[in-house]
Amino acid sequence: MTETQKSATLSLNGDTYELPIFSPTAGPDVLDIRKLYAQAGVFTYDPGFTSTASCDSTITYIDGGKGELLHRGYPIDQLASKSHYLEVCYLLLYGELPTAAQLEDFETRVTRHTMVHEQMHNFFRGFRRDAHPMATLVGVVGAMSAFYHDSLDVTDPWQREVAAIRLIAKLPTIAAMAYKYSIGQPFVYPRNDLDYAANFLHMCFSVPAEEYHVNPILSRAMDRIFILHADHEQNASTSTVRLASSSGANPFACIAAGIACLWGPAHGGANQACLEMLKEIGSVDRIPEFIERAKDKNDPFRLMGFGHRVYKNTDPRAKVLKQSADEVLELLGVEDNPLLQVAKELERTALNDPYFIEKKLFPNVDFYSGIILEAMGFPTSMFTPIFALSRTVGWISQWKEMIADPQNKIGRPRQLYLGETLRDYVDIEKR
Length: 431
Ligand code: SDX
What we know:
By secondary structure, this protein is mainly alpha-helical. The protein is built from 18 helices and six strands. Helix 7 runs parallel beside helix 8 (about 195-205), helix 11 packs across helix 18 (about 385-405) and helix 12 (about 270-280) crosses helix 17 (about 365-375). It binds s-citryldethia Coenzyme A (SDX). S-citryldethia Coenzyme A binds near residues 267 and 359. S-citryldethia Coenzyme A binds near residues 308, 309, 361 and 365. One of its GO terms (biological process) is tricarboxylic acid cycle. Pathway: Carbohydrate metabolism; tricarboxylic acid cycle; isocitrate from oxaloacetate: step 1/2. Belongs to the citrate synthase family.
Protein backbone atom coordinates (compact mmCIF):
# COMPACT_ATOMS: atom_id res chain seq x y z
CA MET A 1 0.00 0.00 0.00
CA THR A 2 2.12 2.95 -1.17
CA GLU A 3 0.57 5.05 -3.97
CA THR A 4 -2.51 7.29 -3.68
CA GLN A 5 -3.85 10.35 -5.54
CA LYS A 6 -6.22 11.49 -2.81
CA SER A 7 -5.30 13.62 0.20
CA ALA A 8 -6.84 15.69 3.01
CA THR A 9 -5.58 19.17 3.91
CA LEU A 10 -4.90 20.02 7.53
CA SER A 11 -4.60 23.69 8.46
CA LEU A 12 -2.67 24.13 11.72
CA ASN A 13 -0.94 27.15 13.26
CA GLY A 14 -0.96 29.00 9.93
CA ASP A 15 0.49 26.10 7.95
CA THR A 16 -1.24 23.49 5.80
CA TYR A 17 -0.34 19.82 5.54
CA GLU A 18 -1.43 17.26 2.95
CA LEU A 19 -2.42 13.93 4.51
CA PRO A 20 -2.57 11.10 1.95
CA ILE A 21 -5.86 9.18 1.85
CA PHE A 22 -5.82 5.44 1.16
CA SER A 23 -8.95 3.65 -0.01
CA PRO A 24 -9.61 0.04 1.08
CA THR A 25 -11.26 -2.76 -0.88
CA ALA A 26 -14.07 -2.44 1.69
CA GLY A 27 -14.76 -0.05 4.58
CA PRO A 28 -13.79 3.56 5.33
CA ASP A 29 -10.90 5.46 3.73
CA VAL A 30 -7.91 6.07 6.00
CA LEU A 31 -5.88 9.23 6.56
CA ASP A 32 -2.16 8.48 6.55
CA ILE A 33 -0.77 10.41 9.54
CA ARG A 34 2.58 8.62 9.73
CA LYS A 35 4.48 11.83 8.94
CA LEU A 36 2.21 14.18 10.88
CA TYR A 37 4.41 14.55 13.98
CA ALA A 38 7.58 15.02 11.92
CA GLN A 39 5.89 17.65 9.71
CA ALA A 40 3.48 19.42 12.10
CA GLY A 41 4.83 18.58 15.56
CA VAL A 42 1.48 17.30 16.82
CA PHE A 43 0.13 13.87 17.83
CA THR A 44 -3.35 12.54 17.12
CA TYR A 45 -5.35 11.53 20.22
CA ASP A 46 -7.53 8.41 20.22
CA PRO A 47 -7.68 6.46 23.53
CA GLY A 48 -9.37 3.11 22.86
CA PHE A 49 -8.58 3.50 19.14
CA THR A 50 -12.18 4.33 18.19
CA SER A 51 -11.07 6.02 14.94
CA THR A 52 -7.63 4.51 14.36
CA ALA A 53 -6.48 1.85 11.90
CA SER A 54 -3.41 0.20 13.42
CA CYS A 55 -2.41 -1.74 10.31
CA ASP A 56 -3.57 -2.91 6.93
CA SER A 57 -4.82 -6.49 6.63
CA THR A 58 -6.37 -8.88 4.12
CA ILE A 59 -7.70 -11.47 6.57
CA THR A 60 -11.05 -10.37 8.08
CA TYR A 61 -13.49 -7.59 7.31
CA ILE A 62 -16.38 -6.45 9.52
CA ASP A 63 -19.14 -4.14 8.33
CA GLY A 64 -20.58 -3.01 11.68
CA GLY A 65 -23.51 -1.22 10.05
CA LYS A 66 -24.66 -4.25 8.06
CA GLY A 67 -23.69 -6.79 10.71
CA GLU A 68 -21.40 -8.53 8.20
CA LEU A 69 -18.27 -10.59 8.97
CA LEU A 70 -16.05 -11.89 6.15
CA HIS A 71 -13.02 -14.16 6.42
CA ARG A 72 -10.92 -13.70 3.26
CA GLY A 73 -14.19 -12.53 1.65
CA TYR A 74 -16.35 -15.50 2.72
CA PRO A 75 -19.33 -14.61 5.00
CA ILE A 76 -19.30 -16.18 8.46
CA ASP A 77 -22.79 -17.69 8.15
CA GLN A 78 -21.74 -19.64 5.02
CA LEU A 79 -18.53 -20.82 6.67
CA ALA A 80 -20.45 -21.84 9.82
CA SER A 81 -22.97 -23.88 7.82
CA LYS A 82 -20.78 -25.27 5.01
CA SER A 83 -17.20 -25.44 6.28
CA HIS A 84 -15.42 -26.91 9.29
CA TYR A 85 -12.89 -25.40 11.67
CA LEU A 86 -9.63 -26.74 10.22
CA GLU A 87 -10.72 -25.68 6.74
CA VAL A 88 -11.42 -22.17 8.12
CA CYS A 89 -7.97 -22.30 9.78
CA TYR A 90 -6.42 -23.02 6.38
CA LEU A 91 -8.39 -20.15 4.82
CA LEU A 92 -7.30 -17.68 7.50
CA LEU A 93 -3.67 -18.80 7.40
CA TYR A 94 -3.13 -19.10 3.64
CA GLY A 95 -5.82 -16.87 2.10
CA GLU A 96 -7.77 -19.37 -0.02
CA LEU A 97 -10.05 -22.36 0.58
CA PRO A 98 -7.91 -25.51 0.26
CA THR A 99 -8.18 -28.21 -2.37
CA ALA A 100 -8.96 -31.67 -1.02
CA ALA A 101 -5.25 -32.57 -1.14
CA GLN A 102 -4.19 -29.35 0.58
CA LEU A 103 -6.81 -29.86 3.30
CA GLU A 104 -5.78 -33.46 3.91
CA ASP A 105 -2.12 -32.44 4.23
CA PHE A 106 -3.00 -29.58 6.60
CA GLU A 107 -5.23 -31.75 8.79
CA THR A 108 -2.50 -34.40 8.97
CA ARG A 109 0.10 -31.81 10.00
CA VAL A 110 -2.17 -30.43 12.73
CA THR A 111 -3.18 -33.90 13.95
CA ARG A 112 0.44 -34.94 14.33
CA HIS A 113 1.20 -31.98 16.57
CA THR A 114 -1.66 -32.37 19.09
CA MET A 115 0.43 -33.99 21.85
CA VAL A 116 2.42 -31.75 24.21
CA HIS A 117 5.95 -32.37 25.52
CA GLU A 118 5.52 -34.97 28.28
CA GLN A 119 7.41 -32.82 30.74
CA MET A 120 4.69 -30.14 30.46
CA HIS A 121 2.50 -32.42 32.57
CA ASN A 122 4.74 -31.55 35.53
CA PHE A 123 4.29 -27.85 34.76
CA PHE A 124 0.55 -28.16 35.43
CA ARG A 125 1.21 -29.67 38.87
CA GLY A 126 2.57 -26.33 40.06
CA PHE A 127 -0.91 -24.76 39.86
CA ARG A 128 -3.60 -24.95 42.55
CA ARG A 129 -6.43 -27.24 41.51
CA ASP A 130 -8.85 -24.31 41.84
CA ALA A 131 -6.83 -22.05 39.53
CA HIS A 132 -9.01 -20.55 36.80
CA PRO A 133 -8.24 -22.47 33.57
CA MET A 134 -7.40 -19.17 31.88
CA ALA A 135 -4.62 -18.63 34.42
CA THR A 136 -3.29 -22.08 33.58
CA LEU A 137 -3.63 -21.44 29.85
CA VAL A 138 -1.68 -18.17 30.00
CA GLY A 139 1.08 -19.89 31.98
CA VAL A 140 1.35 -23.09 29.98
CA VAL A 141 1.14 -21.45 26.54
CA GLY A 142 3.81 -18.97 27.56
CA ALA A 143 5.88 -21.91 28.82
CA MET A 144 5.76 -23.51 25.35
CA SER A 145 8.71 -21.20 24.57
CA ALA A 146 10.62 -23.20 27.20
CA PHE A 147 9.93 -26.48 25.40
CA TYR A 148 9.88 -25.85 21.65
CA HIS A 149 13.21 -24.17 21.01
CA ASP A 150 13.20 -25.13 17.30
CA SER A 151 10.29 -22.77 16.51
CA LEU A 152 11.19 -19.56 18.30
CA ASP A 153 13.06 -17.69 15.57
CA VAL A 154 10.43 -15.42 14.00
CA THR A 155 12.81 -14.47 11.17
CA ASP A 156 12.77 -18.06 9.88
CA PRO A 157 9.62 -18.77 7.77
CA TRP A 158 9.91 -22.52 8.43
CA GLN A 159 10.00 -21.95 12.22
CA ARG A 160 7.04 -19.56 11.95
CA GLU A 161 5.05 -22.24 10.12
CA VAL A 162 5.91 -24.91 12.69
CA ALA A 163 4.99 -22.59 15.56
CA ALA A 164 1.65 -21.81 13.91
CA ILE A 165 0.80 -25.50 13.47
CA ARG A 166 1.95 -26.35 17.00
CA LEU A 167 -0.22 -23.63 18.55
CA ILE A 168 -3.35 -24.55 16.57
CA ALA A 169 -2.78 -28.24 17.33
CA LYS A 170 -1.84 -27.99 21.01
CA LEU A 171 -4.22 -25.35 22.37
CA PRO A 172 -7.15 -27.82 22.60
CA THR A 173 -4.88 -30.33 24.35
CA ILE A 174 -3.66 -27.70 26.83
CA ALA A 175 -7.17 -26.33 27.42
CA ALA A 176 -8.49 -29.85 28.03
CA MET A 177 -5.57 -30.54 30.40
CA ALA A 178 -6.39 -27.34 32.31
CA TYR A 179 -9.98 -28.57 32.67
CA LYS A 180 -9.01 -32.10 33.73
CA TYR A 181 -6.50 -30.70 36.24
CA SER A 182 -9.17 -28.42 37.73
CA ILE A 183 -11.55 -31.35 38.36
CA GLY A 184 -8.88 -33.78 39.60
CA GLN A 185 -9.19 -36.19 36.69
CA PRO A 186 -6.25 -37.64 34.73
CA PHE A 187 -5.11 -35.99 31.53
CA VAL A 188 -6.46 -37.65 28.38
CA TYR A 189 -4.15 -37.95 25.38
CA PRO A 190 -5.36 -36.77 21.97
CA ARG A 191 -6.39 -39.39 19.41
CA ASN A 192 -5.39 -39.18 15.75
CA ASP A 193 -8.52 -40.97 14.59
CA LEU A 194 -10.79 -38.13 15.80
CA ASP A 195 -11.38 -34.79 14.09
CA TYR A 196 -10.41 -31.55 15.81
CA ALA A 197 -13.68 -30.88 17.65
CA ALA A 198 -14.35 -34.52 18.55
CA ASN A 199 -10.79 -34.82 19.87
CA PHE A 200 -11.32 -31.83 22.16
CA LEU A 201 -14.54 -33.29 23.55
CA HIS A 202 -12.78 -36.64 24.01
CA MET A 203 -9.89 -35.00 25.91
CA CYS A 204 -12.34 -33.09 28.12
CA PHE A 205 -15.00 -35.67 28.87
CA SER A 206 -13.56 -39.18 28.52
CA VAL A 207 -12.22 -41.03 31.59
CA PRO A 208 -9.99 -44.13 31.68
CA ALA A 209 -12.67 -46.10 33.46
CA GLU A 210 -14.99 -46.46 30.49
CA GLU A 211 -15.41 -46.05 26.74
CA TYR A 212 -16.34 -42.53 25.63
CA HIS A 213 -18.29 -42.07 22.40
CA VAL A 214 -18.34 -38.54 21.00
CA ASN A 215 -21.89 -37.36 20.35
CA PRO A 216 -21.86 -36.15 16.71
CA ILE A 217 -24.38 -33.42 17.57
CA LEU A 218 -22.03 -32.01 20.20
CA SER A 219 -19.03 -32.42 17.94
CA ARG A 220 -20.71 -30.45 15.14
CA ALA A 221 -21.84 -27.77 17.61
CA MET A 222 -18.31 -27.58 19.04
CA ASP A 223 -16.78 -27.21 15.59
CA ARG A 224 -19.25 -24.44 14.75
CA ILE A 225 -18.38 -22.58 17.97
CA PHE A 226 -14.69 -22.85 17.04
CA ILE A 227 -15.44 -21.36 13.58
CA LEU A 228 -17.49 -18.48 15.01
CA HIS A 229 -14.67 -17.41 17.34
CA ALA A 230 -11.75 -17.88 14.93
CA ASP A 231 -10.88 -14.29 14.00
CA HIS A 232 -12.29 -10.80 14.26
CA GLU A 233 -9.94 -8.19 12.73
CA GLN A 234 -8.10 -5.89 15.15
CA ASN A 235 -9.95 -6.64 18.43
CA ALA A 236 -8.18 -6.06 21.76
CA SER A 237 -6.49 -9.47 22.04
CA THR A 238 -5.40 -9.53 18.38
CA SER A 239 -3.98 -6.03 18.78
CA THR A 240 -2.17 -7.30 21.89
CA VAL A 241 -0.64 -10.15 19.88
CA ARG A 242 0.41 -7.73 17.14
CA LEU A 243 1.95 -5.28 19.61
CA ALA A 244 3.79 -8.05 21.46
CA SER A 245 5.11 -9.53 18.21
CA SER A 246 6.23 -6.08 16.97
CA SER A 247 9.12 -6.30 19.46
CA GLY A 248 10.20 -9.63 17.91
CA ALA A 249 8.95 -11.72 20.86
CA ASN A 250 8.53 -15.43 20.13
CA PRO A 251 5.09 -16.65 18.94
CA PHE A 252 4.28 -18.57 22.14
CA ALA A 253 4.88 -15.47 24.28
CA CYS A 254 2.76 -13.38 21.91
CA ILE A 255 -0.16 -15.81 22.00
CA ALA A 256 0.08 -15.99 25.81
CA ALA A 257 -0.28 -12.19 25.80
CA GLY A 258 -3.37 -12.48 23.60
CA ILE A 259 -4.89 -15.06 25.96
CA ALA A 260 -4.28 -12.74 28.92
CA CYS A 261 -6.04 -9.87 27.17
CA LEU A 262 -8.97 -12.03 26.03
CA TRP A 263 -9.66 -13.00 29.67
CA GLY A 264 -11.16 -9.61 30.53
CA PRO A 265 -14.98 -9.46 30.98
CA ALA A 266 -15.21 -6.64 28.43
CA HIS A 267 -13.73 -9.04 25.84
CA GLY A 268 -13.59 -12.84 25.75
CA GLY A 269 -14.40 -13.14 29.46
CA ALA A 270 -17.91 -11.87 28.65
CA ASN A 271 -19.16 -15.38 27.77
CA GLN A 272 -18.56 -16.54 31.35
CA ALA A 273 -19.88 -13.24 32.76
CA CYS A 274 -22.98 -13.45 30.55
CA LEU A 275 -24.00 -16.93 31.75
CA GLU A 276 -23.40 -15.88 35.36
CA MET A 277 -25.60 -12.83 34.68
CA LEU A 278 -28.38 -14.99 33.19
CA LYS A 279 -28.23 -17.22 36.28
CA GLU A 280 -28.38 -14.14 38.55
CA ILE A 281 -31.45 -12.87 36.66
CA GLY A 282 -32.87 -16.38 37.06
CA SER A 283 -36.34 -15.79 35.64
CA VAL A 284 -38.02 -13.62 33.01
CA ASP A 285 -39.93 -11.62 35.62
CA ARG A 286 -36.65 -10.19 36.95
CA ILE A 287 -35.55 -8.93 33.50
CA PRO A 288 -37.01 -5.40 33.86
CA GLU A 289 -34.97 -4.88 37.07
CA PHE A 290 -31.74 -5.76 35.28
CA ILE A 291 -32.58 -3.74 32.16
CA GLU A 292 -33.03 -0.70 34.41
CA ARG A 293 -29.72 -1.40 36.16
CA ALA A 294 -27.96 -1.64 32.77
CA LYS A 295 -29.33 1.80 31.88
CA ASP A 296 -28.43 3.39 35.23
CA LYS A 297 -25.22 5.43 34.88
CA ASN A 298 -24.66 5.12 38.63
CA ASP A 299 -24.75 1.34 38.44
CA PRO A 300 -21.62 -0.37 37.03
CA PHE A 301 -23.79 -3.30 35.88
CA ARG A 302 -23.84 -3.85 32.11
CA LEU A 303 -25.71 -6.46 30.09
CA MET A 304 -22.92 -8.94 29.43
CA GLY A 305 -22.93 -10.33 25.91
CA PHE A 306 -24.48 -7.08 24.68
CA GLY A 307 -22.93 -4.22 22.73
CA HIS A 308 -19.87 -4.03 20.52
CA ARG A 309 -17.32 -1.44 19.43
CA VAL A 310 -17.83 -2.25 15.75
CA TYR A 311 -21.25 -3.90 15.33
CA LYS A 312 -24.04 -1.31 15.39
CA ASN A 313 -26.34 -4.00 14.05
CA THR A 314 -26.71 -7.62 15.13
CA ASP A 315 -23.43 -9.54 15.46
CA PRO A 316 -23.83 -12.20 12.72
CA ARG A 317 -22.15 -14.72 15.02
CA ALA A 318 -24.85 -14.16 17.65
CA LYS A 319 -27.49 -15.00 15.02
CA VAL A 320 -25.81 -18.32 14.19
CA LEU A 321 -25.25 -19.12 17.87
CA LYS A 322 -28.91 -18.40 18.69
CA GLN A 323 -29.98 -20.90 16.02
CA SER A 324 -27.38 -23.36 17.23
CA ALA A 325 -28.60 -23.00 20.83
CA ASP A 326 -32.13 -23.92 19.74
CA GLU A 327 -30.87 -26.93 17.74
CA VAL A 328 -28.41 -28.27 20.30
CA LEU A 329 -30.71 -27.89 23.31
CA GLU A 330 -33.59 -29.52 21.43
CA LEU A 331 -31.39 -32.41 20.28
CA LEU A 332 -30.19 -32.80 23.86
CA GLY A 333 -33.78 -32.74 25.08
CA VAL A 334 -33.28 -29.58 27.18
CA GLU A 335 -35.02 -27.09 24.88
CA ASP A 336 -36.98 -25.73 27.84
CA ASN A 337 -33.71 -24.68 29.50
CA PRO A 338 -34.75 -21.67 31.64
CA LEU A 339 -31.53 -19.81 30.83
CA LEU A 340 -32.34 -19.92 27.11
CA GLN A 341 -35.81 -18.56 27.83
CA VAL A 342 -34.35 -15.77 29.98
CA ALA A 343 -31.77 -14.96 27.26
CA LYS A 344 -34.38 -14.76 24.51
CA GLU A 345 -36.73 -12.60 26.59
CA LEU A 346 -33.83 -10.40 27.69
CA GLU A 347 -32.82 -9.91 24.04
CA ARG A 348 -36.40 -9.16 23.02
CA THR A 349 -36.90 -6.66 25.87
CA ALA A 350 -33.58 -4.88 25.30
CA LEU A 351 -34.06 -4.62 21.54
CA ASN A 352 -37.39 -2.89 22.17
CA ASP A 353 -35.97 -0.48 24.76
CA PRO A 354 -35.14 3.08 23.57
CA TYR A 355 -31.82 3.07 25.50
CA PHE A 356 -30.50 0.03 23.63
CA ILE A 357 -32.02 1.14 20.33
CA GLU A 358 -30.47 4.62 20.55
CA LYS A 359 -27.04 3.25 21.56
CA LYS A 360 -27.28 0.49 18.93
CA LEU A 361 -26.63 -2.27 21.46
CA PHE A 362 -27.26 -5.80 20.16
CA PRO A 363 -26.33 -9.29 21.38
CA ASN A 364 -22.74 -10.16 20.51
CA VAL A 365 -20.87 -13.45 20.12
CA ASP A 366 -20.83 -13.98 23.90
CA PHE A 367 -24.58 -13.77 24.49
CA TYR A 368 -25.67 -17.27 23.46
CA SER A 369 -22.39 -19.20 23.40
CA GLY A 370 -22.40 -19.93 27.14
CA ILE A 371 -25.86 -21.50 27.01
CA ILE A 372 -24.66 -24.00 24.41
CA LEU A 373 -21.38 -24.69 26.21
CA GLU A 374 -23.12 -25.31 29.53
CA ALA A 375 -25.62 -27.66 27.83
CA MET A 376 -22.62 -29.51 26.38
CA GLY A 377 -21.29 -30.09 29.91
CA PHE A 378 -18.64 -27.38 30.27
CA PRO A 379 -18.35 -25.34 33.49
CA THR A 380 -18.47 -21.54 33.02
CA SER A 381 -14.73 -21.38 33.80
CA MET A 382 -14.04 -23.24 30.52
CA PHE A 383 -15.97 -20.80 28.31
CA THR A 384 -13.15 -18.31 27.78
CA PRO A 385 -10.47 -21.02 27.34
CA ILE A 386 -12.66 -22.36 24.51
CA PHE A 387 -12.82 -18.86 23.03
CA ALA A 388 -9.01 -18.66 23.34
CA LEU A 389 -8.32 -21.98 21.61
CA SER A 390 -10.72 -21.00 18.80
CA ARG A 391 -9.12 -17.57 18.38
CA THR A 392 -5.54 -18.91 18.31
CA VAL A 393 -5.74 -19.34 14.52
CA GLY A 394 -6.86 -15.72 14.15
CA TRP A 395 -4.06 -14.45 16.36
CA ILE A 396 -1.50 -16.56 14.50
CA SER A 397 -2.80 -15.56 11.06
CA GLN A 398 -2.60 -11.87 11.97
CA TRP A 399 0.84 -12.47 13.54
CA LYS A 400 2.13 -14.13 10.35
CA GLU A 401 0.71 -11.28 8.24
CA MET A 402 2.43 -8.69 10.42
CA ILE A 403 5.82 -10.46 10.57
CA ALA A 404 5.87 -10.79 6.78
CA ASP A 405 5.01 -7.09 6.29
CA PRO A 406 8.16 -5.17 5.23
CA GLN A 407 6.65 -2.07 6.93
CA ASN A 408 6.55 -3.96 10.25
CA LYS A 409 8.14 -1.91 13.06
CA ILE A 410 7.83 -1.89 16.82
CA GLY A 411 4.56 -0.38 18.03
CA ARG A 412 5.24 2.63 20.23
CA PRO A 413 2.24 4.98 20.81
CA ARG A 414 2.79 8.49 22.24
CA GLN A 415 0.59 10.33 24.79
CA LEU A 416 -1.12 13.55 25.83
CA TYR A 417 1.00 14.34 28.91
CA LEU A 418 -0.92 16.11 31.71
CA GLY A 419 1.54 15.56 34.55
CA GLU A 420 4.02 17.84 36.35
CA THR A 421 6.57 19.73 34.28
CA LEU A 422 10.24 19.92 35.28
CA ARG A 423 10.85 20.56 39.02
CA ASP A 424 13.80 20.04 41.40
CA TYR A 425 14.08 17.31 44.05
CA VAL A 426 13.10 18.43 47.57
CA ASP A 427 14.99 16.94 50.54
CA ILE A 428 12.76 15.15 52.99
CA GLU A 429 13.40 17.59 55.81
CA LYS A 430 12.04 20.42 53.60
CA ARG A 431 8.78 18.65 52.57
C1 SDX B 1 -15.92 -9.44 22.33
O1 SDX B 1 -13.66 -6.15 19.43
C2 SDX B 1 -14.10 -7.33 19.11
O2 SDX B 1 -14.23 -7.68 17.95
C3 SDX B 1 -14.37 -8.26 20.29
C4 SDX B 1 -15.02 -9.60 19.98
C5 SDX B 1 -14.10 -10.51 19.20
O3 SDX B 1 -14.60 -11.42 18.54
O4 SDX B 1 -12.85 -10.37 19.35
O5 SDX B 1 -16.22 -9.38 19.24
C6 SDX B 1 -15.37 -10.34 21.28
O6 SDX B 1 -15.17 -8.97 23.14
C7 SDX B 1 -17.38 -9.11 22.32
C8 SDX B 1 -17.79 -8.06 23.42
C9 SDX B 1 -17.95 -8.82 24.73
N1 SDX B 1 -18.14 -7.87 25.87
C10 SDX B 1 -19.33 -7.75 26.46
O7 SDX B 1 -20.36 -8.31 26.08
C11 SDX B 1 -19.31 -6.85 27.69
C12 SDX B 1 -20.52 -5.90 27.68
N2 SDX B 1 -20.33 -4.94 26.58
C13 SDX B 1 -19.69 -3.71 26.86
O8 SDX B 1 -18.86 -3.61 27.94
C14 SDX B 1 -19.36 -2.89 25.62
O9 SDX B 1 -20.46 -2.93 24.80
C15 SDX B 1 -18.12 -3.24 24.82
C16 SDX B 1 -16.91 -3.31 25.69
C17 SDX B 1 -18.30 -4.54 24.13
C18 SDX B 1 -17.93 -2.15 23.78
O10 SDX B 1 -17.65 -0.98 24.45
P1 SDX B 1 -17.37 0.39 23.68
O11 SDX B 1 -17.39 0.20 22.21
O12 SDX B 1 -16.20 1.05 24.29
O13 SDX B 1 -18.67 1.20 23.97
P2 SDX B 1 -18.92 2.05 25.27
O14 SDX B 1 -18.47 1.28 26.47
O15 SDX B 1 -18.37 3.42 25.05
O16 SDX B 1 -20.51 2.10 25.27
C19 SDX B 1 -21.23 3.05 24.48
C20 SDX B 1 -22.46 3.36 25.31
C21 SDX B 1 -22.12 3.75 26.74
O17 SDX B 1 -23.13 4.63 27.20
P3 SDX B 1 -22.76 6.26 27.23
O18 SDX B 1 -21.52 6.40 28.09
O19 SDX B 1 -22.53 6.64 25.78
O20 SDX B 1 -24.00 6.89 27.84
O21 SDX B 1 -23.28 2.19 25.41
C22 SDX B 1 -23.37 1.78 26.77
C23 SDX B 1 -22.26 2.47 27.52
O22 SDX B 1 -22.61 2.69 28.88
N3 SDX B 1 -23.20 0.33 26.78
C24 SDX B 1 -23.92 -0.52 27.51
C25 SDX B 1 -23.44 -1.79 27.17
N4 SDX B 1 -22.45 -1.68 26.28
C26 SDX B 1 -22.29 -0.36 26.04
N5 SDX B 1 -24.90 -0.33 28.41
C27 SDX B 1 -25.43 -1.44 28.98
N6 SDX B 1 -25.02 -2.71 28.69
C28 SDX B 1 -24.03 -2.92 27.80
N7 SDX B 1 -23.62 -4.15 27.53
